[in-house]
Amino acid sequence: MEQSNQLIDLVHSRIDEFLETRQPIVTTISPDLTPLVEFSRQFLSGGKRFRALFCYWGWQSVATSESAGAGRDFDRSPTDLAPIVSAAAALEIFHAAALVHDDIIDNSDTRRGAASAHKLFEGIHGRSGWAGSQVDFGRAAGILLGDLLLGWSDELLDEGLAAAPDASAADRARSEFNRMRTEVTVGQYLDILEERAWLIQPESELFGRALRVIVFKSAKYSVQAPLVIGAALAGADPDHLHALRAFGLPLGIAFQLRDDLLGVFGDTAVTGKPSGDDLREGKRTVLIALARESLSEPARSELDARLGDPLLTEDQIGVLQRTIVDSGAVERIEALIASNVAEALAALEGSPISGAVTTRLTELAETVTRRVF
């Protein structure tokens, strides 16, 4: 736990340091660009840093493996830690960029209990009395902020890789990062596709299509890719990477299944978003696919008619929540979460990953899939 807390502190510091170096590049162009840096700081100041932690423990899993040699310890000095801290911080900046874009795509007004990026830009427009639509300005500015953060995540990763002692390991870490970036982008496309294309898809395929979205939009980039990026940077061999992939993918699926439940039933005070937000956004998640399988035709039609209505009242949200619970879909999701966590933990048994790191990964598995509603 102490190492994890130290890593989080180092990642915070590295992000702050990085933004300090980028601020003059932006603000010397024009003081009008100050909000880009201020909002970047705001969106990078919170969060649980799960991706940074998985990246770090992927790296440590190599440092403490039997093949690495007894007593090998990367946790020795800031110089030793510089590559992994920068890689972990780059993942957090990438995540912030994805959230900024995701909120625009989903027309989501809040993020972590505060206004989402495009709403903040809308506010600037409204207070300043500028011409044109404040909604259009907010959306356009939010897209550009997300793009800026994407570029910065690449720059920070490159700084970390340049400090790595093993150039070939750094190249492998870069390849894994590039793959993750592609997968999460196409996964996002699959997500918006399912919100619209479900109507003409065979009923028997909806569960599989929703699961595919989970894998590529979230599971790989939330858990599997950070683990593998960290391990690759430490020089992991193919067997080691295979073990981490086998652990990371089912855990990432369980993580997103939990998040899908929170999107429908979560407490606003915990999630930072209105309860039932995914229902208003029309998310065609695994939860919805499972609910539809068990509902009567009238109940299914009512769910389909209501899902995606941004004007749903609290009472209507409550009716939909009860419909989903009564369908048995929540129990089935809980069973899927449990089975995926079990599969993930089983992948660690007999793997080259040390007992100490296995303990940390097991703790993280419990943390990211914990029931909080």
TrEMBL record:
Listed Pfam families: polyprenyl_synt (PF00348)
Cofactor(s) in the UniProt record: Mg(2+)
Transmembrane segments: none
Alphabetically ordered keywords of this record: Magnesium, Metal-binding, Transferase
SUPFAM superfamilies, per the entry: Terpenoid synthases (SSF48576)
Matches recorded under InterPro entries: Isoprenoid_synthase_dom_sf, Polyprenyl_synt, Polyprenyl_synt_CS
Similarity-based family: Belongs to the FPP/GGPP synthase family.
Protein name: Polyprenyl synthetase family protein
